[in-house]
Write a structure and sequence with these properties.
The protein is an alpha/beta fold and about 220 residues long. The protein has one domain: Divalent-metal-dependent TIM barrel enzymes (TIM Barrel, Alpha-Beta Barrel), CATH 3.20.20. The chain has seven helices and seven strands. It has a seven-stranded parallel sheet with strand order 1-2-3-4-5-6-7.
């Protein structure tokens, strides 16, 4: 994917998708990444259909649910995991309907339900990595199967490392993940990579080497 997409999160001061798309359209922006930070949209399909000339891709927490929550695809709590999967499946439905070229998403977090409002641990118990990864892998199997049924390419984003709850930040994690799920691409976030490599003391080139054949998109 060589095109440049402008994220809906780039326009500060509003979470109204209708207003954001109006501004982008007025300025000739034809490639748009739909992502989190938006208000609930009742007539979403109708709204996106109005911009038939716009190329959309979808990232993580979109479409916004009626009742906001923090996604966690590795949640031990099946209610949280189920709600997280529902967002992913709805996003892939939209990708299939509107011809979006990619759905990308975040890994899970090593907590029972969700992280705190600032994505910190906030007194939450850290789940052992193997237990979190087992649940995360179950979620990936569901997402991968659903993506295949809808004909939608998918990609997993590398995260920064704010605390030990964050998964998929290290080169060895991606090397292992890609052995298990070779059908899932990578959304390479260069800012996250820079932060994680410094905090975890690894060479950025090692992660680049691990994912070089699977990168479908890049976040700058």
């Amino acid at each position: 994917m060589s095109e440049i997409y402008v994220s809906t999160s780039c326009l500060k001061g509003t979470g109204n998708l209708r207003k954001i798309l109006e501004v982008y359209s007025a300025h000739g922006i034809e490639n748009v990444e739909l992502t989190g930070g938006l208000e609930y949209i009742k007539d979403l399909d109708c709204l996106l259909g109005h911009y038939s000339g716009t190329n959309f891709i979808i990232h993580n927490y979109f479409p916004p649910p009626r009742e906001p929550f923090l996604m966690n695809l590795a949640a031990q709590d099946e209610t949280v995991r189920g709600k997280s999967l529902a967002i992913c499946k709805r996003a892939m439905d939209l990708c299939s309907r509107f011809g979006c070229r990619l759905y990308s998403f975040h890994p899970g977090f090593r907590v029972e339900s969700a992280l705190g409002p600032n994505f910190d641990l906030s007194g939450r118990r850290l789940v052992p990595y193997k237990d979190a990864f087992r649940i995360f892998a179950r979620s990936i199997e569901e997402i991968s199967d659903y993506a295949r049924s809808r004909g939608v390419p998918i990609a997993l984003e590398n995260l920064e490392h704010k605390n030990e709850a964050y998964m998929m930040t290290r080169p060895e994690e991606f090397a292992r993940f890609q052995e298990i799920f070779p059908e899932v691409g990578v959304l390479l976030d260069l800012g996250h990579l820079k932060i994680a490599s410094r905090r975890l003391d690894f060479e950025a080139k090692d992660l680049l080497e691990a994912v070089k054949d699977r990168v479908l998109a890049v976040h700058n």
